[in-house]
Design goal:
This protein is of the alpha/beta class. It has a domain of 136 residues: Aspartate Aminotransferase, domain 1. Helices cover 42% and strands 15% of the residues.
Length: 397
C-alpha cells in the first residue's frame, strides 16, 4: 500500500508524503523495518529476485523498506531519479568520489572543503592512483586552467565550510559537460530547499543528512542523488559490496526530520540574517560573511542560484584566537559544538576543530584565521540569541 505519487507537489507536501510505503496495517507514520533479511516463498522466487527478474528486497545492506522511503522522498525533493542513503555524510562523499574515478583519472576540486572531504581528495584518492588538483572555486578561470586530458570529475561544496564562499555551479557543470566529466556537489549548507544543484547542471548531489535533514542532533546519515543511469553504472555495485548502508532506524528519524525541514530552515535563515546584520555593526568584528548580505563576495552568483541565505554565519573577531575562545566560553544559549543545521544554535572555532588537520598555509588561503568562528543558527528566539551574542562580544573585548 503506497501513497499516491504526484510530481507537481510543492516541496512541503512532498516532504510529508512522497515515497510512503504502508504495510497491511495502514499505519499513519512510516514503519521501521528493523530486519536484516527477507523471506522468499520458494527457492525459485529467491533465484528470480537475485537475478533482478522479480522486484523485492534481498538484504538490508542493499536496500530496506524504511531506507527506500527516505531515498524516494529525497528524490522527490531534489528532483533526482534515484538515490542511495548512507550511514553518514562522509560515507556519501567518499562513495560518490571513489565510484566515479579510477587509477589514472584526474579530479578537480574546490580547495574550500570540509576537512574530511579535503582529506579524501588530497590524501586518500592519490593512494589509489587518482590525480587531484585543488583550485579556488570562486574563480572560474582556475577550473578551466586545471583541466587535463584525463580529467573525469569535478567536486565542490557551495556555500563552503566554513567561510561560506559560493561557487558558480552552472559554470562548473558546463565545463564538466564540455569534456565529458561529471560534477559532484555537496549541498549541505544550502539545503535542498535553497539551492538545486541538479537544476543548475550538476550530475550528482550529496548530503550529510545528519545536518538540517535530521536537524535535531539525533542521528547520522547521508545520501547520494543522481540519474538512474549513473547510479546503476557507477554506484550500485560499489554500494552493494562495500556496505556504507543507512540503518532503518536512522532512516525513519530522517523521514521525521524532513516533515519539519521547511519550517525549521525558514526560521533559522530569518534569524541568521538578523544576527549577521547585528554582527556586521559591532566594533570587535573584523569580517562577517553571510550569503544573504549584499556585501557577500559572490553576491551576484547567489542571486542566480540560491533562493535563500543560509542558517550559517562566518565571522572574524579582531582579537584572534584568545578573543574567539573568550567569546565561545561566554555564551550561554549558543552551544560549542562542531555540528551544524541543528535546532540548537551551535558555534565552532574551525582552526582548532573541523579544519585543525588542514595546514596553517591552507587555512590562510581559505580565509580561516585564528579569530574565525562559525555559527549555526538554531530555533531559539532571535532576541535571546542576540542578547547572548552581545554579552559574549563584551566578554571577548
Amino acid at each position: 500500500m503506497t501513497s499516491p505519487e504526484k510530481r507537481n507537489w510543492k516541496p512541503q507536501t512532498a516532504m510529508v508524503h512522497s515515497g510512503t510505503l504502508r504495510s497491511g496495517f495502514a499505519e499513519t507514520s512510516e514503519a521501521i523495518y528493523l530486519t536484516q533479511g527477507y523471506v522468499y516463498e520458494t527457492a525459485e522466487a529467491a533465484e528470480a529476485r537475485f537475478k533482478g527478474e522479480e522486484p523485492g528486497f534481498i538484504y538490508s545492506r542493499y536496500a530496506n523498506p524504511t531506507v527506500d522511503m527516505f531515498e524516494k522522498r529525497m528524490c522527490a525533493l531534489e528532483g533526482a531519479e534515484d538515490a542511495r542513503a548512507t550511514s553518514s555524510g562522509m560515507a556519501a562523499v567518499a562513495a560518490a568520489l571513489l565510484c566515479s574515478a579510477r587509477a589514472g583519472d584526474h579530479v578537480i576540486a574546490a580547495r574550500a572543503l570540509f576537512g574530511s572531504c579535503r582529506w579524501v581528495v588530497e590524501t586518500l584518492m592519490p593512494k589509489y592512483g587518482i590525480e587531484t588538483t585543488l583550485v579556488d572555486g570562486t574563480k572560474n578561470e582556475e577550473w578551466e586552467k586545471a583541466v587535463r586530458p584525463n580529467t573525469r570529475l569535478f567536486f565542490l561544496e557551495s556555500p563552503t565550510n566554513p567561510t561560506l564562499e559560493v561557487i558558480d555551479i552552472a559554470f562548473v557543470a558546463r565545463l564538466a559537460n564540455s569534456i565529458g566529466a561529471k560534477l559532484i556537489v555537496d549541498n549541505v549548507f544550502a539545503t535542498p530547499l535553497q539551492q538545486k544543484p541538479l537544476d543548475l547542471g550538476a550530475h550528482i548531489v550529496v548530503y550529510s543528512a545528519t545536518k538540517h535533514i535530521d536537524g535535531q542532533g539525533r542521528c547520522l546519515g547521508g545520501i547520494i542523488l543522481s540519474d538512474k543511469e549513473w547510479i546503476d553504472k557507477n554506484l550500485h555495485d560499489y554500494f552493494r559490496h562495500t556496505g556504507p548502508s543507512l540503518s532503518p532506524f536512522n532512516a525513519w528519524t530522517l523521514l521525521k526530520g524532513l516533515e519539519t525541514l521547511p519550517i525549521r530552515v525558514r526560521q533559522q535563515t530569518e534569524s541568521a540574517a538578523k544576527i549577521a546584520d547585528f554582527l556586521a555593526e559591532q566594533p570587535g568584528i573584523a569580517r562577517v560573511i553571510y550569503p544573504g548580505r549584499a556585501d557577500h563576495p559572490q553576491a551576484d552568483v547567489i542571486k542566480k542560484q540560491m533562493t535563500g541565505g543560509s542558517t550559517l554565519i562566518c565571522f572574524d573577531l579582531k582579537g584572534g584566537k584568545r578573543a574567539a575562545f573568550d567569546f565561545e566560553n561566554a555564551l550561554r544559549v549558543v552551544l560549542i559544538s562542531n555540528n551544524l543545521g541543528d535546532a540548537k544554535s551551535l558555534i565552532t572555532h574551525p582552526a582548532t576543530t573541523t579544519h585543525k588537520n588542514v595546514s596553517e598555509e591552507a587555512r590562510a588561503e581559505l580565509g580561516i584565521g585564528p579569530g574565525t568562528l562559525r555559527i549555526s543558527v538554531g530555533l531559539e528566539d532571535v532576541d535571546d540569541l542576540l542578547e547572548d551574542i552581545n554579552a559574549a562580544l563584551k566578554a571577548a573585548r
